[in-house]
Amino acid sequence: MPKDWSGSRLDLHLDIDATGGRRSGLEAALRAAVREGRLTAGTRLPSTRGLARELGLSRGTVSAAFGQLAEEGYLSTRPGSGTTVADVPPRAAHPVRPREPAPTAPRHDLRAGLPDISAFPTRAWLAATRRVLTRARPEVFGAGDPQGRIELRTALADHLGRTRGVVTTPDRVVITSGHYQSVGLLGGVLAANGTGVAAVEDPGHHLYREAVRRAGLTALPLPVDGRGARVDALPRDAGAVFLTPSHHYPTGVPLHPVRRQAVCAWARATGGLIVEDDYDGEFRYDRQPVGAVQGVAPDHVVYCGTASKTLGPALRLAWMALPPHLVGPVVRAKREADLYTETLGQLVLADLIATHAYDRHIRAARLRYRGRRELLLDRVAAIGGLTAHGVPAGLHALVTLPPDGPAEHRLLTDCARHGLALRGLSELHHDPEGRPQGLLIGFAAPSDRAYPQALDVLCGVLTRSVPGQHT
């Protein structure tokens, strides 16, 4: 027998929130009662007149709410039989898991590869955004191009040719949602094209090892010395090599000119692919930046760049200048990955480049970072037993530890205890056993005001950890 709410005087609490209107509030209250099992299937509801009188609502409001819930399947209405609750399984009550607390930002951030986001060119970005929106056609707000906006590809082709010696055209540039995506797309395309082995610098960024392995390729270590990657040690079966030739990550040395020529000759002779990560090539402090390897062999090199180091990682804007035969496969992979990169950010960056606001921002950052690097090296030099490596470039410096200690992991633990975040060298080796230990010290991330204090904390930890060796 159906349960009769109207005749049984069933005491049902309806919490009606009229903020969005009385009808919407009644619908939500009845819907919740059905979902939670307080109104079970077959229960007969009062007449619209009776419920309206009981709740102090108009009959029209109740009738409209009943009609809406009937259309949604929560209620059943039959002429002459009134309105009953439909057979809707009650929603199972799941315990709400407490939200995990967001990771606490370190008090002092000296991690490598991070720019000073407090110096983001907000005014220039806002001015460019206004210009972009003022002249934007309606189609700008529709679906985008998997290859990227032609405005940004055109601006980048000109900018990269002028500042980095890259030889490319807009039709050979692909815009991605960050450098991580660029590497992932390339890994998949390489595997699909039959590449089975890729050489990766050792030490080198773990991103490449992970991307190569996720794509199903074998990642083989390529040793690095004081002249950069040992291209003479390239495995014979390698179909690709991932390099940071302008400023090796993490040692900070550029690839020697003889080796640049040798790796290009290898690519031409074998058909192998060079993947050039120019992650911080804009930042050289003692001379003009070394030009990209891509400019010497544009048909054999994939040039990768990003706005993460110059502007900020939140933009998720990166790019690749590709050999012609890879453009189609990479664009298809991009379409399958996420259709296209966000459009407005592309147009704003294109405007910044075209108006040279991007160049001005980089020049100002270069001056600040040069001073910070010099201050870091001066402070480290006052502590005996530590060795700084690399040319005056980039956003970090590698400092290796003496063979007799202190241990890298203990230093990192001590730094973390003092609210200082930075990275160690060991994680960047293919096999850290028996390899040098050290710290990658980023000098760009803190604001100008916070940087001296971060160095005080770092040098305090280092001084206490290298007893008797500081001067």
Automatic annotation (TrEMBL):
It holds the Pfam family GntR. Residues 85-95 have a biased composition (Low complexity). It comes from Streptomyces netropsis (Streptoverticillium netropsis). Residues 20-88 form the HTH gntR-type domain. This is GntR family transcriptional regulator/MocR family aminotransferase. Keywords: Aminotransferase, DNA-binding, Pyridoxal phosphate, Transcription, Transcription regulation, Transferase. In the C-terminal section; belongs to the class-I pyridoxal-phosphate-dependent aminotransferase family. Residues 75-113 are annotated as: Disordered. One of its GO terms (molecular function) is transaminase activity. InterPro entries: Aminotransferase_I/II_large, HTH_trans_reg/aminotransferase, PyrdxlP-dep_Trfase, PyrdxlP-dep_Trfase_major, Tscrpt_reg_HTH_GntR, WH-like_DNA-bd_sf, WH_DNA-bd_sf. It comes from the Bacteria.
